[in-house]
Structures are given as structure tokens and as C-alpha cells.
Amino acid sequence: MAERVIGAERAVEAVFREEHGLLLASLVRRFGDLDLAEEVASEAIEAALVHWPVRGVPARPGAWLLTTARRRAVDRLRRDQAYAARLAVLQVEADRAAPAAPPADAATDADLPDERLRLFFTCAHPALPAEARGALMLRCLAGLTTAEVARAHLVPPATMAQRIVRAKRKIREARIPFRVPGADELPGRLPGVLQVLYSVFTEGYAASSGPDLQRPDLAEEAIRLARILRRLLPGEREVTGLLALMLLVHARREARIGPAGELVLLDEQDRARWDRAMIEEGLALVPVALTGGPPGPYAVQAAIAALHDEAADLATTDWPQITALYDVLSALAPSPVVALNRAVAVAMRDGPEAGLALLDELAGEERLRGYHPYHAARADLLYRLGRLPDAAAAYRRALELAGTEPERAHLRRGLEATGETASAT
């Protein structure tokens, strides 16, 4: 009996993880309220934990959960007429923007349209605070608990709970629509969704603070959500570009960390440890993202990542092509960070002096003053030019700004290579 209960719990967990966004989106579309949808989804999960060990896991577990959740929602609305009336007003307003969902009491596979695209755009709505968008996406679409989302954002669970509550209140009070933007709005809204996903991935691939260099579970959640988004928007090439970029970068995750958890830079990585299957998947997506019109920023970044992943080592990397792609990216999405990355590519193509000249031109950029990779790049080029006192000063500044212990340890080693002692930092 105990084994059956454990098996049912695992089945519920697996279904919930895969179906959570689909279930929640269907409930929000049906009832028009995110809080109600989350409450009845949780109640449906609790009911599954009671019934499935006894009756067995149903043939269509997602449909079972949706039917149960819908019935719980109807019961709640019957008990609270004032709440039901308020939701009815909101639903009428929502229905003006999109056709109403068909009523249903018992769900079948045909009653489970994929409404997650609506939820992507709601979670990433520009009216919401930037800090709340990634949190909502992880909570609502990835199915992470509030505590898990809090760990992802490195804040206490109570702080994250308040952040999520405020975001949901904003959705309700500002009447943020649960709908996919029209064709005229989509070009302006989709980049916001992609930016939220990429921010989640970046925090997972290169943590901003803490004891660990990477948080692979967070990066993998971002990739999973990007896969879902691509299935929902197969014709949007920038969605494909973002997924390709994530795959090609995440494929190097195992080689970025040494045996003691230390940072291993690209030129020192054992490329045999790169995930070849993930690289092949990403490489196949790059041409799709690049063809059919002018490329977008994520497609160009994916092409750069592909050149890195295809090279046997740093010496055989096609630095002229990478530099040319950074020129394209600079025209599409100019930023100090893009300029920094281009300068590093130029240093690899033309030598450290050429790269350093470009970095020095960026010294006045406010965004780079507190960005430790900028100072670390300067330190490396200064060291390669034999300007050891200047390199030491740049390493010290990078050390002051680095957020994770593996990064700080790497910078301390660089500082010590200049003849300075890290203990003075």
C-alpha cells in the first residue's frame, strides 16, 4: 500500500510539473481570475493524492485534474455570490477581446486547448514590475512553488510571496487582459516575453550572486518554457533563436566548472564534456532562426554561440566571423555589453592592444562601471600586454564587483599572477 501511495504521489508530481501551466491557463481562461485558478488547481492536486492511490492514475490525468478543478471553482463561486459577480464583470470585459471558452463540466483531451500562450503574455505584461515578471512566469508556467521561486531570485520566501501577491493584485486591478496580443501588437510585446525568459536563463547559467557559479535547474526551466513557447509560436523566428541560443550555451555547463567548483573559462574547457546532443539540437535551429527575413538579436547571438560550439579549440575559432556577427548585433540591439563582447572578439582577432583600445573607449559607460566582466576583460588584456600594475588594479575592481565565490576565486588567481597578493583585497 505504501508503495502504491508513493507511486501515486510521484505520478501527481510528474503530471503537475508537465501540465501545470496548461491547467492553470485553462482555468484562468474559463474563470478569469488567477488567484481562483491557483487555489482550485492546488485543491485538484490534493484530491488526486487522495483518490489516485486507491483508484489508480486515470488514463488522462491532466483532464481529470481540470475537471476536478473546474468543479471546485464552480462550488466556490456558488458559495460566494459577490465574488462570482465580480468575476462575471471581469469575464465580460475579457470576452470582448477574445471568444469565450466553451463551457464544460467533464474535460476530455479535446477540451484542453493550449491556453498557455495567453499566460506567457499576461505574466510578462509591461504594466507589471520587471522583478515580478520572471517570478510569475516561474510560478504560473513552470509550476515552481513560492519557496522555489524565492530561491531562484535569492530572496526570502515571505518577500517573494508578497511580490507575487502584489503582481496578481496588479493584474486584477489594472484589468490586465488574459489574451494573446493581436498581430499589430505582437511585434511590440513578444520581445518582453523573450527578455523575461532570457533573464531567467541567464541567472541560471551565470548566477549573479551566491556560492555557486551556476544554477542548472533554473536554466533548464527557462529552456523548458522556451520549448513550450516555440510550440505555441512556431512561426516566430526570434523564439527559435532564443531556444537555439539557450541550448548552445547551456551545452557547455559541465565544462564550465572544475572538480572543486572553480570557474573554467572557454579557452581552458574540456570540450569533450560539452553536451553534443544539445549542441546538435541548437545548431539545427540556427538556420531556421536566421532565414526568412532580417535576423533578430537572439538569432544573431545563437549564430555566435554556434561558432564557438563548432570550433575544436580557441585557436581555430572563427573570430573574424564572430566579430562580423557582433557588428550585426550592434546595429540590431546596441548596448554597452554588446560593445564589450565585440571588443573581446576583436582582441582575439587582432590582438590584445586592439581589444583594449575598444574597452578603454567604453570606460565612460555607466552600465559597465559596476559590471565585473568589463573590468575582468580589461585585466586579462592588460596582463597579456605585460602591464602588470594596471592589470592588478583592474582585477581588484572586478573582485569588488563579482557576485559569486567561484568568480571571485578565479579573479584572485588572476590578481596573484600579476605578482600582487589577493589577501590585500
UniProtKB/TrEMBL annotation:
<dbReference type="InterPro" id="IPR013325">
    <property type="entry name" value="RNA_pol_sigma_r2"/>
</dbReference>
<dbReference type="GO" id="GO:0003677">
    <property type="term" value="F:DNA binding"/>
</dbReference>
<dbReference type="InterPro" id="IPR011990">
    <property type="entry name" value="TPR-like_helical_dom_sf"/>
</dbReference>
<dbReference type="InterPro" id="IPR013249">
    <property type="entry name" value="RNA_pol_sigma70_r4_t2"/>
</dbReference>
<feature type="domain" description="RNA polymerase sigma factor 70 region 4 type 2">
    <location>
        <begin position="123"/>
        <end position="171"/>
    </location>
</feature>
<keyword id="KW-0804">Transcription</keyword>
<dbReference type="InterPro" id="IPR036388">
    <property type="entry name" value="WH-like_DNA-bd_sf"/>
</dbReference>
<dbReference type="InterPro" id="IPR013324">
    <property type="entry name" value="RNA_pol_sigma_r3/r4-like"/>
</dbReference>
<comment type="similarity">
    <text>Belongs to the sigma-70 factor family. ECF subfamily.</text>
</comment>
<dbReference type="Pfam" id="PF04542">
    <property type="entry name" value="Sigma70_r2"/>
</dbReference>
<dbReference type="Pfam" id="PF08281">
    <property type="entry name" value="Sigma70_r4_2"/>
</dbReference>
<keyword id="KW-0805">Transcription regulation</keyword>
<dbReference type="GO" id="GO:0006352">
    <property type="term" value="P:DNA-templated transcription initiation"/>
</dbReference>
<keyword id="KW-0731">Sigma factor</keyword>
<dbReference type="GO" id="GO:0016987">
    <property type="term" value="F:sigma factor activity"/>
</dbReference>
<feature type="domain" description="RNA polymerase sigma-70 region 2">
    <location>
        <begin position="16"/>
        <end position="81"/>
    </location>
</feature>
<dbReference type="Pfam" id="PF20239">
    <property type="entry name" value="DUF6596"/>
</dbReference>
<dbReference type="InterPro" id="IPR046531">
    <property type="entry name" value="DUF6596"/>
</dbReference>
<dbReference type="InterPro" id="IPR007627">
    <property type="entry name" value="RNA_pol_sigma70_r2"/>
</dbReference>
<protein>
    <submittedName>
        <fullName>RNA polymerase sigma-70 factor (ECF subfamily)</fullName>
    </submittedName>
</protein>
<feature type="domain" description="DUF6596">
    <location>
        <begin position="189"/>
        <end position="286"/>
    </location>
</feature>
